[in-house]
Structures are given as structure tokens and as C-alpha cells.
Design a protein that fits this description.
The chain has 18 helices and eleven strands. By secondary structure, the protein is α/β, with parallel strands linked by helices. It has two domains: 1-76; 78-396, 3-Layer(aba) Sandwich (Rossmann fold), CATH 3.40.50.1360. The protein has a six-stranded parallel β-sheet with strand order 1-11-10-6-4-5, sandwiched between helices. A three-stranded antiparallel β-sheet has the order 7-8-9. It has a two-stranded antiparallel sheet with strand order 2-3. β4 (142-145), α8 and β5 form a beta-alpha-beta unit. α1 (7-21) packs across α3, α6 (80-88) runs parallel beside α18 and α7 crosses α8 (149-160). The longest helix is centred in the N-terminal third of the chain and has 19 residues, at 119-137. It is globular, with a radius of gyration of 21 Å.
């Protein structure tokens, strides 16, 4: 896989793959269409293959829904991605982490009426994003995965690739979100997604630590009591939890990894949740465990990233209230996420570290996207058209 991500070159590689793969143009004809030399066509097609745009299967594997005129216009002209890169370049964060790569794909969570989303658009987005995500995973020994429908659709897309283009055959994929009552064992749960990704990226080999019997929330009424300590001791005794997050384990012996597999991860694949409905399908359990109303929660947070609630800055809110809610969360903690983003930012290739990779769709994610970007928690963005346009508007005041 290429060591650096250049959005403009990648767009041109995608277009060359489309022209050669679907339109069956010769290298000379592609060169004429793109106003470049034939030797440059060869280089672009080689890059397209490394990105997962296999020329001989471009329609079936890379563009299963067909290339729309709108998408071709994106490929030929500066896209939402390039405009976002320019807007993001001016942001300075306390952590020193800046978004170094933005990928914008069609599809996503478009409304069909009545508050519902067009599932086919999300499927399309997942298939477009899959080759890029598979390529990022190829750089990693350990990859952490959260949960949700968007991540599930990207993994669907990776599974559809005949031969995922990866450099490591033994990548360990670990879940970092435990289960909630309404979410346990569902296709979008962190443990199920990690297992699926492990299967496709490593051919079924390697260990598969799971969090299927770990509660995602410790009820707020238990905090600062003997019951909280008892619950945390029980969770910490789980071999899988200890393997993922570190700790003493059931027999009192600390994990050989110290901080667990999470401390070794060089990539986190996650999405974000809006203020209207943070933590996705786990929203109702969050309200119950936190003994909080939807209105009050929306006043406190702008959303979540991988289950971690992000405090809303402004009058009438305090970070302490959100810290209390985050203390209930047994999954990936804020400090670990921040450390992963900072480590990836400081890493000088080789080896390349993708860091925190956020994939999401829809205009309603713009507020939480801006919040996590400004807090220096994101290294890579993978967005649909709507999310990219809305985020650009927020950043530029358009």
C-alpha cells in the first residue's frame, strides 16, 4: 500500500481505473481523455490496484453500483475531500494532532422520509470505502474496532473483495466496546464486527478476544460504592477483557502486554454518534444507566466517538457531568483513544500508523465531527458527500 495518502492522485487513479476497466479504453485512449502521457496512465493504474481499484474487476468489486455522473465530476475536479483538507489545515489542536487524510465517497445515510435512512446508500458507501480501509489495516499488527451500522457496511464491502489487498496476514482485530442488553450478539456489535474483520483479513487465523459477556455500562448509582468496585473486579477478571485492555486477570497475573492489545494497536476504526442519538442503538441503555433525560443529555454532549461522550463547550454545562457519564463506560477510554491519535501523528514512516480512523455519513454528524477534530482525536476521515459538505460549512462558517 502507498505510504502516504494523496487525495488528488488517488482520485486520478480511480478515474483511470474506471476508464480502463468499465469503458475498456486502451492506455493511449485513457491518456487522451485525461490529458496525460501513457506512462503516467500505467503509474496511475498501478496505484489504483494498490488502493483496491482492480482494473479488471472495477465494476464488480470497486464500483458495484456503477459510476454516476456526479461521482465522475468529483473525480475530475477538486472534491469535498480537497476542500476539507484545506479547511482542516488551519486548525490547531492542544494535542498537536491534525487530520492528515480525508476520503469522500458517495452513498451514506440519506433520508428517505419519516426519519428513515436509505439503506442502499449506506451499502454503497461501505463498498466505496472498503478498499481504502483494507489498505490501512494492511499496515497494522493490531487493529481496534468499535461498533455500528456504518462500520458493519464497510466490513461488508471488504468481505466482497475477492482478495483483500493487505500486507500482513496475521493482523489481530480486537473489539473495544462491550455489550449492552439490546445490542448483545447483533451484527453491528463490536465483538461480532471484530470477528468478521479478523476472518476476512487473516483468513480465520489468529486469536479472537471477545467482549460478549461484559456489560457496557456500570449504572451511575453504583459509582463510588462497594458495588462499583465489585463490578469492576468482576469485569477485570475476564481473560478477554484483560487481554484487550490489560489488568491482573482472574488469577491475579498481569497481562504480558502491560496495557493489553489496545496499547499495541496502531489503528482504531470507529464512527461517531450525533447529540440527538449518541452511542447508536445503545442510546436507551445509556439513558437508563445514567438516569438522565434525552433533553439533558443533548445539553451536555455533542455526541460520542466509539462510545466515549464528548462534552459540549458553552454556558450551563460542566465537564464533570460528562466525566461522570463516561465513568460508567467499560469500553475504550478517552485517554487510550487520545494516546493512539497522538502516537500515530508522531510516527514517521516507516512504519506508517493510521491512528484514529473515523468513518461516518450524514449531515447530522457535522457537529460531533468538528468537536473531535478540534480536540485532536482524529487522524483520518472517511465521509460521505453530505457529511463532508456539512463539516466544511461548519469549519468555514459558510
Amino acid at each position: 500500500m502507498p505510504r502516504s495518502i494523496d487525495p488528488e492522485t488517488d482520485r486520478r487513479a480511480e478515474l483511470a481505473a474506471y476508464l480502463a476497466g468499465e469503458l475498456k479504453l486502451s492506455h493511449k485512449e485513457v491518456a487522451g481523455r485525461m490529458s496525460i502521457s501513457a506512462s503516467n496512465v500505467s503509474r496511475l493504474l498501478s496505484r489504483a490496484a494498490r488502493l483496491g481499484c482492480y482494473v479488471e474487476r472495477v465494476v464488480r468489486d470497486f464500483v458495484p453500483q456503477g459510476v454516476t455522473p456526479h461521482r465522475l465530476e468529483q473525480l475530475r475536479t477538486p472534491s469535498e475531500a480537497q476542500r476539507l483538507v484545506e479547511a482542516l489545515a488551519s486548525i490547531r489542536t492542544d494535542t498537536g494532532v491534525g487530520v492528515r487524510s480525508v476520503r469522500v465517497f458517495p452513498g451514506g445515510a440519506r433520508h428517505t422520509g419519516g426519519g428513515a435512512f436509505d439503506e442502499q446508500h449506506l451499502v454503497e458507501f461501505g463498498r466505496w470505502a472498503a478498499p481504502h480501509v483494507a489498505g490501512l489495516i494492511g499496515h497494522c499488527d493490531v487493529v481496534a474496532v468499535t461498533w455500528g451500522t456504518t462500520i458493519s457496511r464497510i466490513i461488508d464491502g471488504i468481505e466482497l473483495q475477492a482478495t483483500p489487498h493487505v500486507e500482513r496476514a496475521r493482523t489481530i482485530v480486537v473489539p473495544v466496546c462491550a455489550e449492552v442488553e439490546d445490542f448483545a450478539g447483533k451484527p453491528q456489535s463490536s465483538s461480532v464486527l471484530a470477528s468478521r474483520l479478523q476472518e476476512v483479513m487473516s483468513g480465520g487465523g489468529g486469536e479472537r478476544p471477545m467482549l460478549t459477556r461484559i456489560p457496557a455500562f456500570i449504572p451511575r448509582r453504583f459509582l463510588d460504592t462497594e458495588r462499583e468496585r465489585g463490578v469492576r473486579e468482576m469485569i477485570g477478571a475476564s481473560p478477554s477483557y484483560c487481554r484487550i485492555f490489560g489488568g491482573a486477570g482472574r488469577k491475579g497475573r498481569r497481562s504480558a502486554d502491560g496495557g493489553g492489545l489496545v496499547a499495541r494497536a496502531s489503528m482504531l476504526l470507529t464512527s461517531v454518534g450525533s447529540a440527538e442519538h449518541p452511542v447508536g442503538l445503545n442510546y436507551n441503555e445509556l439513558l437508563d444507566a445514567g438516569d438522565i433525560t434525552p433533553k439533558k443529555l443533548k445539553q451536555l454532549v455533542v455526541g460520542d466517538i466509539g462510545g466515549i461522550l464528548i462534552h459540549r463547550l458553552g454556558k450551563g454545562t460542566t465537564a464533570d457531568e460528562v466525566l461522570q457519564l463516561n465513568r460508567m463506560w467499560t469500553g475504550l477510554q478517552f485517554d487510550a483513544l487520545k494516546s493512539l491519535a497522538v502516537t500515530a501523528q508522531m510516527a514517521a514512516p516507516p512504519p506508517f500508523k493510521p491512528g484514529v480512523v473515523v468513518a461516518c455519513c450524514g449531515r447530522n454528524r457535522a457537529e460531533i465531527l468538528e468537536a473531535v477534530v478540534r480536540r485532536g482525536l482524529v487522524n483520518e476521515l472517511i465521509l460521505d458527500d453530505d457529511a463532508a459538505i456539512a463539516l466544511h460549512e461548519r469549519l468555514t462558517g459558510a
